[in-house]
Automatic annotation (TrEMBL):
It comes from Theobroma cacao. It catalyses: D-fructose + ATP = D-fructose 6-phosphate + ADP + H(+). InterPro entries: Carboh/pur_kinase_PfkB_CS, PfkB_Carbo_kinase, PfkB_dom, Ribo/fructo_kinase, Ribokinase-like. PROSITE patterns: PFKB_KINASES_1 (PS00583), PFKB_KINASES_2 (PS00584). This is fructokinase. It comes from the Eukaryota. May play an important role in maintaining the flux of carbon towards starch formation. Pfam families: PfkB (PF00294).
């Protein structure tokens, strides 16, 4: 029998890491200093993935630490309202919830300025983890921001180890945020330090260039990131779609063309969609035609997320994604 407060079936996707508030200028295409005002936009890639999963009808839980402050409780409430299990959420009494000021450039791309010195998410300790929850996951998903400092780094490594021992599929999206790292070299080193543990890895074209040191976005460059334990490597290319690599096949899937307003959360939406479908049918990882269908669905979810400001309000339902695919 599963412990109380832990979902008992093996369809659970556990997302580990940071949740924070993005403050987004009310006007696009201005610098932070020029912004006349800001809107609160809840975010943090692992939390976005958890909500993306729940919005698509999957079973999601978030593991991370928030400040015991108004913003922290607001974020926990957003997870709950969006159907994400709160069994892995902790509150720190001494540190604040992380904040990020994000400017949207005229082309919809983002620039960041972070307030985390230290923020609650960085203070998660290994002994505070809900290990029963982690053991019950079918998929354990994480990024790299939780690797930057102790004690959160040790908590991340412990959670990964426990999930792996329990038979979960490990999913990794580095979600590079260079301003948070002491240096680019340290970022590269730490992001790659856990590379060979993951079963599924998703990188953006920018992350591919950063991690390989190559300015070419091609199959040869992507395969530099392959490791023997990997089942699926994905490279997202924005409006050019996505590429996939497995032991037996590789290829690309076109993007859907939409009116892009804000790219925030598109990659998280893509990952959430993919993980939902893997949990439903793990054989997609060995079957190219099934995988292509799933990636088409994930591309549709990513595209829809770019059509509104902010990640969480823009995350689609299954019906939204199917309507876009049908109409394309």
């Amino acid at each position: 029998m599963a412990p109380i407060g832990v979902p008992s079936d093996k369809s659970l996707i556990v997302s580990f890491g940071e949740m924070l508030i993005d403050f987004v200028p009310t006007e696009s295409g201005v610098s932070l200093a020029e912004a006349p005002g800001f809107l609160k936009a809840p975010g943090g890639a692992p939390a976005n993935v958890a909500i993306a999963v729940a919005r698509l009808g999957g079973k999601a839980s978030f593991v991370g630490k928030l400040g015991d402050d108004e913003f922290g409780h607001m974020l926990a409430d957003i997870l709950k309202k969006n159907g994400v299990s709160e069994d892995g959420i902790l509150f720190d009494h001494g540190a604040r919830t992380a904040l990020a000021f994000v400017t949207l450039r005229a082309d919809g791309e983002r620039e960041f300025m972070f307030y985390r010195n230290p923020s609650a998410d960085m203070l998660l300790k290994p002994e505070e983890l809900n290990l029963d929850l982690i053991r019950s996951s079918k998929v354990f998903h994480y990024g790299s921001i939780s690797l930057i400092v102790e004690p959160c780094r040790s908590a991340h490594l412990k959670a990964m180890e426990v999930a792996k021992q329990s038979g979960a599929l490990l999913s990794y999206d580095p979600n590079l945020r260079l301003p948070l790292w002491p240096s680019a070299d340290e970022a590269r080193k730490q992001i790659l330090s856990i590379w060979d543990k993951a079963d599924v890895i998703k990188v953006s074209d920018v992350e591919l260039e950063f991690l390989t040191g190559s300015d070419k976005i091609d199959d040869e460059t992507a395969m530099k990131l392959w490791h023997p334990n990997l089942t699926l490597l994905l490279v997202t290319l924005g409006e050019k779609g996505s590429r996939y690599y497995t032991k037996n096949f590789h290829g690309s899937v076109d993007a859907f063309h939409v009116n892009t307003v804000d790219t925030t959360g598109a990659g998280d939406s893509f990952v959430g969609a993919l993980l939902c479908k893997i949990v439903e049918d793990p054989t997609i990882l060995e079957n190219e035609s099934k995988l292509r269908e799933v990636l088409k669905f994930a591309n549709a979810c990513g595209a829809i997320t770019t059509t509104k400001k902010g990640a969480i309000p823009a995350l689609p339902t299954e019906a939204d994604a199917l309507a876009l695919i049908k109409g394309a």
